[in-house]
């Protein structure tokens, strides 16, 4: 459909976006790489020269590194498990005929629109506070000892808060996918004598598999980067220091830029591994 | 074809779904309710649900003490500004990729997407440093640019998937009818693309409004939007639940309303068109 | 006016050449149909003429003027697309007026021309509607209206009827033919449906894999197809091809005989076979007959009252003067 004339016009129109994104990617990335090979302490002497891979080694061998990886994995894995399982169940429920479907849908997706700092603060104070939180009242009502959520069950609490934020996303996407399932397929399976559970296993789940993969990949990208939820609730204490938070502390709190930059490179590599899988799926969709 | 469902079944579905829906919505509802209580009622034991003395004083106090309007205004400028600039840059780019595809179009799209996957913390210091050097730290301009850049890939992707849905034959028809590039964009493409552009606008305002990494790390007092304002409540001082709730309600209300309008586009935007 | 000359044009998409060097002359006022199976390059050829694709090499002349690099809008051609390509956000009136608006024609003239076209096409009552509120046939008419008002040198139609149901297709076919008779403007019409080609064309261009297999009037193609491809493509039901001993008798490799040129009898005939399927259309009966020694069943046209059923034996006799002979390469032997 294209002629020579429209091609050159197209190139000019794409230029601003391409140049901006290229700059946005290359400039900071190059700087991070540069700093990661330096001993660089802005408040304690500044640039103290090249150190080779020292920062990379020190970042990994610091006592905080492996716990932070573990925390990251637990939070990401926990949230994924909860949101996908509940998301599948919830989307199937919402797909059923009922009164007020639209309103229920709105109720369910609302948490996604709440800004991270608000949801973290609301959960921290109004629900998880061991004295005045609603959950404390609930525990007392049943005669139990209120839980110190954010110190005694800190990781669980964060998983709970983040899952609450992301369940709507998973549900909404899975619901969209479920609605595209041809009901004739299910009816054919029913004619063939498949009981409900095997209809779910053989038709609904395979149909959802692509949507589930997309949910998992996109959430992973965002979950690896969660920040505000921890910043507002525990500030990384009580074993909630994720890789992201650890790097943040190294860079801005202790101002050890070289070390933090090496950590940043690790985070970039980690995110890219996930991104490659996501891009494959999205890319396939482009051809369709 | 949809078949008849017994009323009993439908009633059960309804009860169950509403129960779960309300449970998920409860934290928001509770926040809104608490914002109308006095501080004493907010922590009453047992908690009061609806039967309390409704009051608006918390809203007045929040505004008075912390200059809420300034943060709100910053949020509006940051979210609106970054989105508008992003759309202005994204529309021509998405247009050319959708209608004048070349061998490299797919690669460019994928590459744009990959910039979105870059973890912010990995480039935190460079950006921080650049902001200091350029005098952009704690300015609306600097943050607007950053928010625009982090959302630009989503903007372009969303617009691209919308533009792709405009049949190429219509543009060819316009060309046959004597429309030049300018007329084609002005009379045919833009009117047809407006719904898609509007959805993109909406979703990106939401994303920018709620962004809480750069807004927390690159602002202090002057340019801080609502995300940072709320975070300043994180160290509790005495009785403050009702005021926290009032501040929170004000921070999320505009976006909850916008969000409900954009549920459908949300799916497309956040999955880069992979799920529609 | 509307004379179009294609001179040694080729088109390649990357490495793939979809149109090898091709010459074609279209006279002013002719109704030319490009026909061929899907993927034969007929739509590409039309789009080259329209200017929506650049030719790779060769030249296009419109009324003797070089038009190879002229943008589509300047070629003075109008096109009706398969999907109609109506502007969904504009009313019917605005859709039809669009090319006039682009040409900078004044409002009064625009109005007069749109209304005249609407009258011809029975669209007067629908002028204020949006395309989404119209039926398929009405949308088709709007697309044609948009083409007419420009008073183009030639109309280009890209499979315009393929989205309509069967009954409407017959109607629109007649309407387009009438339109051609009244406007006397050149029309180039792309279709994969040989019935449309036969009924509408002054001149048919049969294409296969970008190559012109034959150019001629409908009856020329019917009576003297140049090769087995054209012979099999033109005519419905398809021509029967017989090989082996059946063809040797006529001194060649393949003979072709159309279903309507076979005489069928229940008592005697040259070849005999068993009826596998008989299709009663009322006016005609089409028999599919398994003849001993032939791999495919032979199709025969009989009268509507011809009462045979599956399993009956029938005898077939070809009308010798209507037998087409083809050589090993599938080319016609005179």
TrEMBL record, chain A:
SUPFAM superfamilies: MetI-like. Keywords: Cell membrane, Membrane, Transmembrane, Transmembrane helix, Transport. Residues 69-278 form the ABC transmembrane type-1 domain. The keyword Cell division does not apply. It is a multi-pass membrane protein. InterPro entries: ABC_transporter_permease, MetI-like, MetI-like_sf. GO terms for biological process: transmembrane transport. The keyword DNA damage does not apply. The chain crosses the membrane at residues 12-37, 69-90, 102-123, 155-178, 211-232, 263-282. It is found in: Cell membrane. One of its GO terms (cellular component) is plasma membrane. PANTHER family: ABC TRANSPORTER PERMEASE PROTEIN. Belongs to the binding-protein-dependent transport system permease family. This is Sugar ABC transporter permease. It comes from Roseibium aggregatum.
Automatic annotation (TrEMBL), chain B:
Its main location: membrane. CDD domains: TM_PBP2. GO terms for cellular component: plasma membrane. The chain crosses the membrane at residues 12-33, 71-96, 108-131, 143-163, 184-209, 240-261. Pfam families: BPD_transp_1. PROSITE patterns: ABC_TM1 (PS50928). Residues 72-262 form the ABC transmembrane type-1 domain. It is a multi-pass membrane protein. GO terms for biological process: transmembrane transport. Keywords: Cell membrane, Membrane, Transmembrane, Transmembrane helix, Transport. InterPro entries: BP-dep_ABC_trans_perm, MetI-like, MetI-like_sf. It is found in: Cell membrane. Belongs to the binding-protein-dependent transport system permease family. This is Carbohydrate ABC transporter permease. The lineage of its organism: Bacteria, Pseudomonadati, Pseudomonadota, Alphaproteobacteria, Hyphomicrobiales.
UniProtKB/TrEMBL annotation, chain C:
The keyword Kinase does not apply. Its main location: membrane. Keywords: ATP-binding, Nucleotide-binding, Transport. Pfam families: ABC_tran, TOBE_2. One of its GO terms (cellular component) is maltose transport complex. It is found in: Cell inner membrane. GO terms for molecular function: ABC-type maltose transporter activity; ATP binding; ATP hydrolysis activity. It is a peripheral membrane protein. InterPro entries: AAA+_ATPase (IPR003593), ABC_transporter-like_ATP-bd (IPR003439), ABC_transporter-like_CS (IPR017871), ABC_transpr_MalK-like (IPR015855), ABC_transpr_MalK/UgpC-like (IPR047641), Mo/tungstate-bd_C_term_dom (IPR008995), NA-bd_OB-fold (IPR012340), P-loop_NTPase (IPR027417). Residues 4-234 form the ABC transporter domain. Belongs to the ABC transporter superfamily. This is ABC transporter ATP-binding protein. It comes from Roseibium aggregatum. The lineage of its organism: Bacteria, Pseudomonadati, Pseudomonadota, Alphaproteobacteria, Hyphomicrobiales.
């Amino acid at each position: 459909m294209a002629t020579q004339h429209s091609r050159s016009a197209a190139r000019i129109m794409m230029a601003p976006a391409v140049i901006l994104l290229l700059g946005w990617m290359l400039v900071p990335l190059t700087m991070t790489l540069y700093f990661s090979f330096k001993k660089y302490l802005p408040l304690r002497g500044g640039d103290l020269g090249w150190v080779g891979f020292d920062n990379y080694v020190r970042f990994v061998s610091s006592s905080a590194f492996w716990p932070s990886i573990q925390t990251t994995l637990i939070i990401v894995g926990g949230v994924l498990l909860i949101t996908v399982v509940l998301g599948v169940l919830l989307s199937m429920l919402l797909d059923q005929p009922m009164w007020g479907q639209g309103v229920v849908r709105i109720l369910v997706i609302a948490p996604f629109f709440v800004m991270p700092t608000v949801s973290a603060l609301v959960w921290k104070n109004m629900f998880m506070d061991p004295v005045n939180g609603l959950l404390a009242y609930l525990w007392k009502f049943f005669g139990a000892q209120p839980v110190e959520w954010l110190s005694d069950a800190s990781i669980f609490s964060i998983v709970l808060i983040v899952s609450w934020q992301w369940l709507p996303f998973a549900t909404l996407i899975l619901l969209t996918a479920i609605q595209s399932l041809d009901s004739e397929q299910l009816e054919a399976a029913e004619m063939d004598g498949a009981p409900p559970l095997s209809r779910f296993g053989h038709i609904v789940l395979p149909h959802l598999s692509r949507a589930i993969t997309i949910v998992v990949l996109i959430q992973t990208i965002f979950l690896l980067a969660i920040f505000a939820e921890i910043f507002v609730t525990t500030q990384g204490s009580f074993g909630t220091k994720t890789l992201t938070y650890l790097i943040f502390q190294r860079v801005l709190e202790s101002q050890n830029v070289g070390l933090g930059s090496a950590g940043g490179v690790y985070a970039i590599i980690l995110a890219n591994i996930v991104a490659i899988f996501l891009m494959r799926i999205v890319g396939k969709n482009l051809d369709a | 074809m949809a078949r008849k469902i017994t009323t009993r079944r439908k009633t059960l579905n309804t009860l169950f779904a509403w129960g779960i829906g309300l449970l998920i919505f409860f934290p928001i509802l509770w926040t809104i309710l608490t914002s109308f209580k006095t501080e004493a009622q907010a922590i009453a034991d047992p908690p009061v649900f609806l039967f309390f003395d409704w009051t608006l004083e918390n809203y007045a106090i929040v505004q008075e003490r912390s200059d809420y309007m300034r943060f709100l205004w910053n949020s509006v400028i940051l979210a609106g500004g970054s989105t508008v600039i992003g759309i202005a840059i994204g529309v021509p780019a998405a247009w050319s990729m959708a209608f004048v595809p070349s061998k490299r179009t797919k690669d460019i799209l994928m590459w744009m997407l990959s910039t979105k996957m870059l973890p912010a913390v990995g480039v935190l210091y460079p950006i921080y440093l650049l902001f200091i050097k350029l005098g952009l730290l704690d300015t609306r301009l600097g943050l607007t640019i950053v928010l625009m850049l982090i959302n630009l890939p989503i903007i372009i992707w969303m617009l691209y998937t919308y533009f792709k849905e405009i049949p190429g034959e219509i543009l060819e028809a316009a060309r046959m009818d004597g429309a030049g590039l300018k007329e084609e964009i002005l009379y045919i493409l833009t009117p047809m693309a407006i719904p898609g552009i509007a959805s993109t606008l909406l979703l990106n305002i939401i994303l920018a409004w709620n962004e809480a990494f750069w807004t927390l790390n690159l602002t202090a007092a002057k340019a801080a939007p609502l995300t940072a304002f709320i975070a300043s409540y994180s160290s509790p001082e005495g009785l403050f639940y009702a005021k926290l709730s009032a501040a929170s309600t004000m921070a999320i209300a505009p976006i909850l309303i916008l969000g409900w309008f954009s549920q459908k586009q949300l799916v497309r935007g956040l999955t880069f068109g992979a799920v529609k | 006016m509307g004379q179009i000359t294609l001179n040694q044009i080729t088109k390649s998409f990357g490495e793939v050449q979809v149109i090898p060097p091709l010459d074609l002359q279209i006279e002013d006022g002719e109704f030319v149909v490009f026909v061929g199976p899907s993927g034969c390059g007929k739509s590409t050829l039309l789009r080259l003429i329209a200017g929506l694709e650049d030719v790779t090499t060769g030249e296009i002349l419109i009324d003797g003027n070089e038009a190879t690099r002229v943008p589509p809008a300047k070629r003075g051609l109008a096109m009706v697309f398969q999907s109609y390509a109506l502007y969904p956000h504009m009313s019917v009136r605005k859709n039809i007026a669009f090319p006039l608006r682009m040409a900078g024609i004044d409002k009064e003239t625009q109005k007069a021309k749109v209304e005249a076209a609407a009258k011809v096409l029975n669209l007067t009552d629908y002028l204020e509607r949006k395309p989404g509120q119209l039926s398929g046939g009405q949308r088709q008419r709007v697309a044609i209206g948009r083409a007419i008002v420009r008073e183009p040198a030639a109309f280009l139609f890209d499979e315009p009827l393929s989205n309509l149901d069967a009954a409407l297709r017959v109607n629109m076919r007649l309407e387009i033919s009438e339109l051609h008779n009244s406007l006397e403007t050149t029309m180039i019409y792309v279709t994969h449906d040989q019935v449309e080609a036969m009924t509408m064309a002054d001149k048919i261009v049969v294409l296969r894999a970008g190559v012109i297999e034959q150019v001629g009037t409908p009856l020329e193609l019917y009576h003297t197809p140049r090769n087995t491809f054209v012979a099999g493509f033109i005519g419905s039901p398809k021509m029967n091809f017989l090989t082996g001993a059946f063809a040797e008798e006529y001194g060649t490799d393949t003979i072709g005989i159309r279903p309507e040129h076979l005489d069928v009898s229940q008592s005697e005939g040259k070849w005999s076979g068993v009826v596998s399927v008989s299709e009663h259309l009322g006016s005609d009966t089409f028999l599919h007959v398994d003849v001993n020694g032939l791999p495919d069943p032979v199709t025969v046209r009989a009268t509507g009252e011809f009462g045979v059923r599956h399993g009956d034996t029938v005898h077939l006799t070809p009308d010798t003067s209507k037998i087409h002979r083809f050589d090993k390469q599938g080319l016609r032997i005179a």
